[in-house]
Design a protein that fits this description.
The structure is a single chain. By secondary structure, the chain is α/β, with parallel strands linked by helices. It has 4 domains: 92 residues, Response regulator (Rossmann fold, 3-Layer(aba) Sandwich); 135 residues, Rossmann fold, CATH 3.40.50.2300; 140 residues, Periplasmic binding protein-like II (D-Maltodextrin-Binding Protein, domain 2, 3-Layer(aba) Sandwich); 60 residues, no CATH class. The chain has a 5-stranded mixed β-sheet with strand order 10-9-11-8-12. Helix 8 links the parallel strand 6 and strand 7. Helix 2 packs parallel to helix 3 and helix 7 crosses helix 8. The longest helix has 19 residues. It is elongated. This is Ionotropic glutamate receptor C-terminal domain-containing protein. It comes from Fagus sylvatica (Beechnut). One of its GO terms (cellular component) is membrane. Its main location: membrane. Pfam families: ANF_receptor.
C-alpha cells in the first residue's frame, strides 16, 4: 500500500496527495472501534481501509456512518445481512460473501462421494463462525452429506499450551468420529501450524485423510516454517503401478466376497473314480478332514456335524489343500462355496464335490454402526448384481471348463458304451475277459486286438435320439 500511495503521489496527481496512517487494533473488538474513532478525530482521515474480518468491518462501518467517512473492507459476511445498504451506507465491500467458497467445498465433497465431514474452525474474539457452518451444512445436505462433528478451537492467543490442547482434542475426535475428511473454515496461521503438527503425530494426516484449507491459509504458506509444510504433506504418493495393483486386488476381493452366498460345501477327493460318499462315513471311519481354522467352519464341524476335534486339520490357505490331499493327511475338506469353486476350477481333473451343501446367511461387509461408506458398498454391489456383471464374472472365472470337469458328459459316456456294446455283439466277450489281465506283449494278443472283430465306432454313428432320451450317466465306463 505504501508503494501504491507513493506511485500515485509522484506520477498521477499534483493536486492530491495520499497519506497513510496505520493502526493495529489487535484482537480486542473495543480497540477496533477506538482505533477507527481515533483516526477520524485526530488524523482527520477521509477513508478507512482494511478489516479482514466481517465483525470488525461492521463495527468500523458503524463509526464511519456517524462521521460520514467511507469504510473500504476486505471482508464480507458469509450470509449477506438484510437491508445491508441501509444499515451501512458508507461501507464498501471489496470481497464477495462466502457462499461461492462454500459451494466449491461442497462440490469437492460430492466429487469424492464423502458422506460425512468434520468442520474445523478457530473461534475469534467475537465468538462467531460468521455463518459459515450454516452455509456448509446446507450445501452438503443437497448431496446427502452432513457435518459429523464441529471441531471448535479457541483463539490461539488464549492458550498457554496450544499444541497440547490441540493434541488432546484430536485424540478425543479420533476416538468418537469415523470421518477423516477435515474442512478448515477459518483459522489463524499459528493455530493451523499447531493443528497440522499434532494431527500428523496421531496419524490424521496421510492417504486415509483429506484436508481442505481456506485461501487465507494457503496464501501465506510461503512464509511459514518448512516443518509446517512437511506436516501438511502427509505420506509420499505411491507409484502409478502400485495404484493399479491395489485397484485390481480390491476388485478381485469384491468379486470373491460379495457375489456368492456363504455356503459350506464339502469337497472330497476322487480316489479311483470313487469319491467319499457322505459325512457319516467320514465320522465312522475316523477320517481326517481339513478346513479353514480362522472361519466359522471349524466350530460348525465340531458343534453341529459332530466331528472329533482331533480329526479336524487346520489349513492355512486354499492352495495348501492340494498338498494335504496328495500326502493323504486329509480325506476330505470343508470349504465355503466361493473358495470351493476357485479350487475346483483350478484342480478340476483331480477333485470333485459332494452333493451335500449347508447354506447360511451369506457373506457381508461389516462396518461400524453409522459408517458413511456402508451405503456406498451396498449400492456398488447392487449395481453389479442388477447389471448381470457378477453372474458373468462367475461363469467366466469360477466355472470349470468342459475338459476339466470330473463329471462325464452324456455324449462321452454313450461313445464308450456303444463301442463296448458293439464289441459284445461280435461275440468276443469271453476271449477279451481271459486276455485282459495279461500285460505281456505277445503276437497272439497283438493279432487279436488288430483283428477285424474289433470295429471302431465314431460319434457320428450314434443316433441323436438315443443320447437325448437317455438319462445322464453317473459312472464313467473305462476299457483300461
Amino acid at each position: 500500500m505504501e508503494i501504491a500511495a507513493e506511485n500515485f503521489n509522484n506520477n498521477h496527481s499534483k493536486t492530491h496527495k495520499l497519506f497513510l496512517y496505520f493502526q493495529d487494533p489487535g484482537q480486542d473488538p473495543l480497540q477496533v472501534v477506538s482505533a477507527a474513532d481515533e483516526l477520524i478525530k485526530e488524523k482527520k482521515v477521509q477513508v478507512i481501509l482494511g478489516m479482514n474480518k466481517w465483525e470488525e468491518a461492521a463495527l468500523v462501518a458503524a463509526v464511519g456512518n456517524k462521521a460520514n467517512v467511507p469504510v473500504i473492507s476486505f471482508a464480507a459476511p458469509a450470509i449477506t445481512p438484510p437491508m445491508m445498504q441501509q444499515r451501512w451506507p458508507f461501507l464498501i465491500q471489496m470481497a464477495n460473501n462466502d457462499s461461492a467458497h462454500i459451494e466449491c467445498i461442497a462440490d469437492i465433497v460430492r466429487a469424492y462421494n464423502w458422506k460425512r465431514v468434520i468442520a474445523v474452525y478457530e473461534d475469534d474474539a467475537y465468538g462467531s463462525d460468521s455463518g459459515m457452518l450454516s452455509l456448509l451444512s446446507g450445501a452438503l445436505q443437497k448431496f446427502d452429506s452432513e457435518i459429523e462433528y464441529c471441531f471448535l478451537l479457541p483463539p490461539v492467543s488464549s492458550l498457554s499450551n496450544a499444541g497440547g490442547f490441540v493434541l488432546d482434542k484430536l485424540l478425543e475426535l479420533q476416538k468418537n468420529t469415523q470421518s477423516r475428511v477435515f474442512i478448515v473454515l477459518q483459522s489463524s496461521m499459528p493455530m493451523v501450524s499447531h493443528l497440522f503438527r499434532e494431527a500428523k503425530k496421531v496419524g490424521l494426516v496421510g492417504r486415509e485423510s483429506a484436508w481442505i484449507i481456506p485461501e487465507s491459509v494457503t496464501s501465506v504458506l510461503d512464509s511459514v516454517n518448512n516443518s509446517v509444510i512437511s506436516s501438511m504433506e502427509g505420506e509420499k504418493v505411491y507409484s502409478n503401478l502400485t495404484r493399479v495393483v491395489v485397484v485390481v486386488w480390491l476388485f478381485v476381493v469384491l468379486i470373491l466376497t460379495s457375489s456368492y452366498t456363504a455356503s459350506l460345501s464339502s469337497m472330497l477327493t476322487v480316489l479311483r473314480l470313487q469319491p467319499v460318499e457322505d459325512i457319516e462315513w467320514l465320522k465312522s471311519s475316523n477320517s481326517k478332514v481339513g478346513c479353514d481354522g480362522d472361519s466359522f467352519v471349524m466350530s460348525y464341524l465340531q458343534n453341529v456335524l459332530g466331528f472329533n476335534p482331533s480329526n479336524i486339520i487346520k489349513v492355512t490357505t486354499e492352495s495348501d489343500y492340494k498338498g494335504h490331499f496328495e500326502n493323504k493327511s486329509i480325506a476330505a475338506a470343508f470349504l465355503e462355496l466361493p473358495y470351493e469353486k476357485v479350487f475346483i476350477n483350478k484342480y478340476c481333473k483331480g477333485y470333485t464335490t459332494s452333493a451335500a451343501t449347508y447354506r447360511f446367511g451369506g457373506f457381508g461387509f461389516v462396518f461400524q454402526k453409522g459408517s458413511p461408506i456402508a451405503r456406498d458398498f451396498s449400492e456398488a454391489i447392487l449395481r453389479l448384481s442388477e447389471a448381470g456383471i457378477l453372474e458373468d464374472l462367475e461363469q467366466k472365472c469360477l466355472t470349470p471348463s468342459h475338459q476339466g470337469s470330473s463329471t462325464p458328459s452324456p455324449t462321452s459316456v454313450w461313445n464308450k458304451a456303444v463301442g463296448l456294446a458293439k464289441y459284445f455283439y461280435n461275440g468276443e466277450i469271453s476271449t477279451a475277459l481271459e486276455r485282459a489281465p495279461s500285460l505281456s506283449h505277445t503276437p497272439d494278443l497283438e493279432d487279436h486286438w488288430s483283428s477285424s472283430r474289433w470295429e471302431e465306432v465314431s460319434t457320428s454313428d450314434i443316433p441323436d435320439n438315443i443320447i437325448q432320451a437317455s438319462p445322464p450317466a453317473e459312472i464313467e465306463l473305462s476299457s483300461s
